[in-house]
Amino acid sequence: MTALHMLQMSVTDPIFLQIGRATSSKQAWKILRAEFGETNEIQDLKLTYLKTKFDEMMLEKEESFGEYIKKMMELVNQLKFYGSNMSDQGRLMWEGQQKK
Question: Sign of dihedral through CA atoms 9, 12, 17, 18?
Protein backbone atom coordinates (compact mmCIF):
# COMPACT_ATOMS: atom_id res chain seq x y z
CA MET A 1 0.00 0.00 0.00
CA THR A 2 1.47 3.37 -0.98
CA ALA A 3 1.44 6.49 1.15
CA LEU A 4 -0.89 8.16 -1.35
CA HIS A 5 -3.35 5.28 -1.10
CA MET A 6 -3.22 5.42 2.70
CA LEU A 7 -3.97 9.15 2.63
CA GLN A 8 -6.86 8.68 0.25
CA MET A 9 -8.33 5.89 2.34
CA SER A 10 -7.99 7.88 5.58
CA VAL A 11 -10.09 10.90 4.68
CA THR A 12 -13.80 11.52 4.41
CA ASP A 13 -15.52 11.60 1.01
CA PRO A 14 -15.60 15.40 0.65
CA ILE A 15 -11.88 15.61 1.39
CA PHE A 16 -11.16 12.67 -0.90
CA LEU A 17 -12.67 14.68 -3.74
CA GLN A 18 -9.96 17.29 -3.16
CA ILE A 19 -7.04 14.85 -3.18
CA GLY A 20 -8.45 12.13 -5.44
CA ARG A 21 -6.57 13.37 -8.51
CA ALA A 22 -3.22 13.72 -6.76
CA THR A 23 -0.52 11.61 -8.37
CA SER A 24 1.77 11.47 -5.33
CA SER A 25 1.45 11.54 -1.57
CA LYS A 26 3.48 14.76 -1.53
CA GLN A 27 0.97 16.42 -3.86
CA ALA A 28 -1.97 15.17 -1.76
CA TRP A 29 -0.31 16.38 1.42
CA LYS A 30 0.31 19.78 -0.16
CA ILE A 31 -3.41 20.05 -1.03
CA LEU A 32 -4.41 19.07 2.52
CA ARG A 33 -1.94 21.47 4.09
CA ALA A 34 -3.17 24.34 1.92
CA GLU A 35 -6.76 23.59 2.90
CA PHE A 36 -6.36 22.78 6.60
CA GLY A 37 -2.81 23.53 7.71
CA GLU A 38 -0.90 26.53 8.80
CA THR A 39 0.81 28.70 6.25
CA ASN A 40 4.51 29.47 6.58
CA GLU A 41 3.58 33.00 7.60
CA ILE A 42 1.47 31.74 10.51
CA GLN A 43 4.23 29.35 11.59
CA ASP A 44 6.75 32.23 11.51
CA LEU A 45 4.44 34.35 13.66
CA LYS A 46 4.04 31.52 16.18
CA LEU A 47 7.80 31.01 16.26
CA THR A 48 8.36 34.71 16.93
CA TYR A 49 5.74 34.66 19.69
CA LEU A 50 7.33 31.59 21.30
CA LYS A 51 10.81 33.13 21.17
CA THR A 52 9.49 36.26 22.87
CA LYS A 53 7.70 34.17 25.48
CA PHE A 54 10.91 32.22 26.11
CA ASP A 55 12.98 35.41 26.42
CA GLU A 56 10.55 36.77 29.01
CA MET A 57 10.32 33.60 31.10
CA MET A 58 11.07 34.04 34.77
CA LEU A 59 10.89 31.79 37.78
CA GLU A 60 7.70 32.70 39.64
CA LYS A 61 7.74 33.09 43.42
CA GLU A 62 5.49 30.10 44.09
CA GLU A 63 7.08 27.95 41.38
CA SER A 64 9.68 25.26 42.10
CA PHE A 65 12.80 25.08 39.99
CA GLY A 66 11.63 21.72 38.62
CA GLU A 67 8.34 23.24 37.49
CA TYR A 68 10.21 26.11 35.84
CA ILE A 69 12.52 23.72 33.96
CA LYS A 70 9.53 21.62 32.85
CA LYS A 71 7.75 24.74 31.56
CA MET A 72 10.92 25.88 29.81
CA MET A 73 11.49 22.50 28.12
CA GLU A 74 7.88 22.44 26.90
CA LEU A 75 8.49 25.83 25.32
CA VAL A 76 11.79 24.64 23.80
CA ASN A 77 9.95 21.68 22.27
CA GLN A 78 7.34 24.03 20.79
CA LEU A 79 10.14 26.19 19.39
CA LYS A 80 11.68 23.11 17.76
CA PHE A 81 8.30 22.08 16.34
CA TYR A 82 7.95 25.45 14.64
CA GLY A 83 11.44 25.33 13.16
CA SER A 84 13.82 26.79 15.70
CA ASN A 85 17.20 25.17 15.08
CA MET A 86 18.71 26.00 18.46
CA SER A 87 19.64 23.00 20.60
CA ASP A 88 18.48 22.71 24.22
CA GLN A 89 21.99 23.41 25.48
CA GLY A 90 22.48 26.35 23.10
CA ARG A 91 19.17 27.86 24.13
CA LEU A 92 19.99 27.54 27.83
CA MET A 93 23.41 29.11 27.30
CA TRP A 94 21.86 31.95 25.31
CA GLU A 95 19.33 32.61 28.05
CA GLY A 96 22.07 32.72 30.66
CA GLN A 97 23.99 35.33 28.65
CA GLN A 98 20.87 37.47 28.21
CA LYS A 99 20.26 37.68 31.96
CA LYS A 100 23.79 38.85 32.88
Answer: negative
User: Which sequence spans correspond to the domains of the chain?
Assistant: 3-36, 40-98
> What is the model's pTM?
0.53
User: How many residues would you count in the chain?
Assistant: 100
Distances, alpha carbon 46 to alpha carbons 4, 14, 26, 75, 82, in Å? 30, 30, 24, 12, 7
- For every one of its 100 residues, what pLDDT tens digit does the chain have, with 9 covering 90 and above? 789 999 889 989 999 999 989 999 999 988 888 888 777 888 889 889 998 998 888 889 999 999 999 998 898 888 888 878 766 555 555 555 555 5
Output DSSP code: residue 63. -
Q: Max CA-CA distance within the chain?
A: 57
| 81 to 15, 33, 75, 86: CA distances (angstroms) | 26, 16, 10, 11
